Amino acid sequence: MQDGILLKTLLKQHGISKNLLAKIKFDGGDLWVNGVKQNAIYSVSEGEVISIHIPAETATVTLKQQEMPLTIVYEDDHFLVLDKPAGVASVTGVNYPDSTMSNYVAGYLKAQDYENQKVHVVTRLDKDTSGLMLFAKHGYAHSLLDKMLQKKSVTKRYFALVHTSEKLEQSAEIQLPIGRKEGSIIERAVVDVEHPTAKFAHTSYEIVRSQPHFTLVDIQLHTGRTHQIRVHFAHLGAPLLGDDLYGGKRDKMSRQALHCHFLSFKHPFTDEMIVLESSLPRDMRLLLE
Fold first, then answer.
1. Any idea what DSSP says for residue 139?
2. H/E element holding 266?
3. What confidence tens digit (pLDDT) does each residue in 235-287 have?
4. Is 126 a known active-site residue?
5. What is the value of pTM for the model shown?
6. By the 8 A CB rule, do 126 and 242 touch?
7. In 3-state terms, what secondary structure has residue 210?
8. pLDDT band (50, 70, 90) for residue 20
């Protein structure tokens, strides 16, 4: 650390966002240097000890606190990882004003009477995708994980049942840009790199088990584009079972056969490697059996 650096600059380097710093300043938080309260433009010297008090976060008034039995895979003071069932949206919106994972986590935080009541969604899943979903339990943890996601230091793997296709290899990298499909506000498609909505997308996969009509693949996302897995595999002529939006048949699956089964990241507060797994959900498992 260089002598004379502003406290706010140093805090930014350690994941304190501008919004979080404003919350500390205006909502009852404090900054201390060597046990003395200071403001954000204090000039920090080598060897000084900095402490931060982040005020408790109240519940979002517009987010209903609802209850549903949750499958908790991991929890500590900073993070909460749930096994999301298929058919439940991740966050509220025009189409899903309530009964989402965000509502149920809000209800859980209230029931546990935690000091921080605000819901922080770190990784979200499509409504019909099941599996591991990561929440932060306070704004600083959320900020740190967002930076880790940007640096691609959070690993997420998915199991998918896709229609068997000759274009599928035993293992491969898919690096094809994705953009909005012409004439649709929902669908995405593989597009030319010059397309105005094109965004680089990178997916890797390995075949786990293959049958004449469908194949189980283990997928790793390296980017997080909307519908990325669904679009990339549809482009290979191997749409997900049940994903009729992208050409998958619904005769064997009533929803897109996609499950986030693996999540790992280095805990930003303890440096411990957090490695979490979730087994195949019943509908996908029965089809394989």
1. H
2. strand 258-266
3. 999 999 999 999 999 998 999 999 999 999 999 999 999 999 999 999 999 99
4. yes
5. 0.89
6. no
7. strand
8. confident
